[in-house]
């Protein structure tokens, strides 16, 4: 939408006196008042005033419909408030014009003005007492009128007429909102039972396809969810076929998948300048929760926060804008109370992602770190969490020593599990002393007794959690210990240094050393060059840390916007998964149910300017690798 259309998209940013809708209402009401001041209303005056009111109402209705359509075209978000304003303008105009016509009829028929049984008048209806008829019993005062009792058929006719007018205006306002609905197409039946993530990386190329306008890629219990500017599509990782698609062109935020992988939530950027509640002119968004297995819309609600605001999902609820909603029926479970000190502003660490199976992260902060200023402290970063069951926001539990990624910061939760400092120290000298860690369930930390797995799995001494490898593999991947002299700059510049030490699989409750791991958590990924009969060719290499599994994907000249030589130079060989803040994710790997997915950016990234700091759409070549052990 161009800048000249701003008056349609963002009308409430201007002062109220400059609102066309307000002036349409003022002109219509003023015309009605002037026309009804006199005792008599001529035909010409009635027609002129009615036309003026109808023109003003038509302008107001068209203006609101154009604004609604402009918002919907740009954001795919239907704002019912626009349609309600249009319906109110129609109802007001109908009432005023009807009143003018009735007044004109009374003027043209003087006997009607004194008729007490005129149905168009407000108040109790009366009729003249016929000769010989007594007045109401018990009334000592003589009277010429008595209460008019309408027949049941007349009452029903009047009620039906009023109801028809109300329904007509309501339908006129509701139809555009009901029409503007995204569609979900179920292309194939998901496999039953649902496949699990393979314990070993895939080595056989099962399918290969290129998908444009990709905003993000994630995995669910059903398969690979691809978020594009046109909607969300879930494909079967085993063969690349489409399971379902949710068609809704919009600007999407980062998706969130529930710990059990059965729900997917995402924010859609809404129009600006809409008055919702007390936050006038604030940025709004629409939160959508889909059934990740079928694509069915589970929940949709308007939030008074922007598209980048955090979301959390448990298996049965969503925490959105300080409100917990049930995924079963969309009902509100609870809302954080600002007056009790549990407002979303007081309890918000910006965590965006899956929570526990039955718990939420209410607050987080940085724990007091122990260590020397020159060496130990940079590898001792820990966080403190305030957790609550997803059914009770008052049952707050506090957890300390939660591991973070020292290179990217932030909390990592996979399958409802995270890593925590045990308080025990390994090493004999202060220079080599490091705290040991363990994998823990968020539900156990939150005190959810019904579903919590209270067992803690030792992970050994570590520098922190590798968030990129953890999210890509669906496991908790810890960094190895780094010497005090191996500072952050050296690790950033040398991707050959190890990035994985222990891999914990939440679904199997097992932890293995990286040297024994055959999965994606510790695997090496990159682009390398090979000399094929005197000519250089590139290929993507994915190899397990144990060396027992390897996949090779050939690259063709011209198949990407960078040559294989440039890709190999940027990749610096095959290395363990990690991506630093601000680093281009041109090559990615994901562990999906039944397959390992390789994603290669094949086209230049479009201008980021229109995406307000969010990731711009990309064109990805997706390759499905099967053959891994379950």
Automatic annotation (TrEMBL):
<keyword id="KW-0812">Transmembrane</keyword>
<keyword id="KW-1133">Transmembrane helix</keyword>
<feature type="transmembrane region" description="Helical">
    <location>
        <begin position="156"/>
        <end position="179"/>
    </location>
</feature>
<feature type="transmembrane region" description="Helical">
    <location>
        <begin position="20"/>
        <end position="38"/>
    </location>
</feature>
<keyword id="KW-0472">Membrane</keyword>
<protein>
    <submittedName>
        <fullName>Uncharacterized protein</fullName>
    </submittedName>
</protein>
<feature type="transmembrane region" description="Helical">
    <location>
        <begin position="82"/>
        <end position="102"/>
    </location>
</feature>
<feature type="region of interest" description="Disordered">
    <location>
        <begin position="333"/>
        <end position="352"/>
    </location>
</feature>
<feature type="transmembrane region" description="Helical">
    <location>
        <begin position="45"/>
        <end position="70"/>
    </location>
</feature>
<dbReference type="InterPro" id="IPR011047">
    <property type="entry name" value="Quinoprotein_ADH-like_sf"/>
</dbReference>
């Amino acid at each position: 939408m161009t800048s000249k259309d701003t008056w349609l998209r963002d009308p409430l940013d201007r002062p109220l006196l400059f609102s066309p809708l307000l002036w349409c209402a003022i002109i219509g009401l003023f015309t009605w008042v002037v026309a009804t001041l006199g005792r008599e209303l001529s035909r010409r005056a009635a027609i002129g005033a009615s036309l003026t009111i109808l023109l003003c109402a038509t302008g107001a209705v068209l203006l609101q419909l154009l604004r609604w359509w402009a918002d919907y075209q740009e954001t795919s978000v239907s704002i019912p408030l626009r349609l309600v304003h249009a319906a109110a303008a129609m109802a007001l105009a109908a009432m005023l014009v009807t009143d003018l016509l009735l007044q004109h009829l009374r003027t043209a028929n003087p006997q009607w003005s004194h008729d007490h049984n005129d149905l168009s008048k407000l108040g109790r209806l009366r009729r003249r007492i016929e000769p010989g008829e007594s007045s109401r019993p018990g009334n000592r005062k003589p009277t010429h009128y008595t209460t008019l009792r309408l027949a049941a058929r007349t009452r029903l006719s009047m009620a039906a007429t009023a109801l028809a007018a109300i329904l007509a205006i309501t339908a006129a306002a509701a139809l555009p909102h009901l029409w503007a609905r995204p569609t979900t197409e179920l292309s194939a039946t998901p496999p039953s039972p649902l496949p699990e993530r393979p314990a070993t990386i895939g080595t056989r190329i099962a399918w290969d396809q290129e998908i444009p306008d990709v905003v993000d890629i994630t995995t669910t219990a059903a398969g690979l969810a691809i978020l594009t500017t046109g909607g969300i599509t879930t494909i079967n990782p085993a063969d690349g076929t489409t399971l379902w698609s949710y068609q809704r062109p919009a600007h999407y935020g980062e998706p969130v998948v529930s710990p059990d992988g059965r729900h997917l939530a995402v924010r859609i950027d809404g129009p600006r300048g809409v008055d919702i509640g007390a936050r006038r002119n604030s940025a709004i968004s629409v939160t959508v929760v889909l059934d990740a297995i079928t694509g069915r819309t589970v929940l949709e609600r308007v939030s008074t926060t922007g598209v980048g605001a955090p979301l959390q999902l448990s298996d049965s609820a969503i925490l959105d804008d300080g409100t917990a909603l049930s995924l079963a029926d969309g009902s509100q479970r609870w809302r954080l109370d600002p007056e009790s000190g549990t407002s979303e502003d007081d309890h918000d660490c910006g965590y965006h992602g899956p929570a526990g199976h039955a718990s939420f992260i209410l607050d987080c902060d940085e724990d007091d770190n122990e260590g020397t200023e020159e060496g130990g402290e940079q590898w001792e970063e820990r966080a403190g969490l305030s957790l609550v069951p997803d059914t009770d926001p008052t049952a707050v539990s506090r957890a300390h020593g939660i591991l973070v990624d020292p290179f990217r910061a932030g909390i990592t939760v996979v399958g409802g599990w995270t890593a925590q400092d045990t308080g025990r120290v390994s090493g004999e000298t202060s220079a080599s002393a490091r705290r040991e860690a363990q994998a823990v369930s968020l539900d156990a930390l939150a005190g959810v007794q019904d579903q919590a797995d209270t067992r803690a799995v030792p992970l050994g001494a570590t520098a922190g959690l590798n968030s990129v490898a953890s999210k890509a593999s669906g496991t908790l991947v810890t960094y190895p210990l780094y010497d005090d002299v191996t500072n952050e700059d050296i690790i950033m510049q040398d991707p050959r240094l190890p990035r994985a030490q222990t891999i914990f699989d939440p679904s199997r409750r097992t932890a293995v050393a990286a040297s024994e791991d055959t999965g994606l958590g510790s695997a090496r990924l990159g682009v390398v060059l090979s000399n094929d009969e005197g000519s250089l060719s590139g290929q993507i290499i994915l190899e397990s840390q144990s060396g027992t599994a390897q996949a090779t994907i050939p690259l063709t000249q011209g198949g990407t916007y960078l040559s294989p030589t440039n890709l190999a130079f940027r990749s610096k060989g095959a290395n363990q998964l990690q991506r630093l803040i601000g680093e281009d994710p041109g090559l990615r790997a994901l562990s999906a149910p039944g397959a390992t997915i390789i994603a290669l950016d094949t086209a230049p990234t479009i201008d980021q300017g229109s995406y307000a700091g969010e990731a711009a759409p990309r064109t990805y070549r997706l390759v499905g690798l099967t053959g891994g052990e379950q």
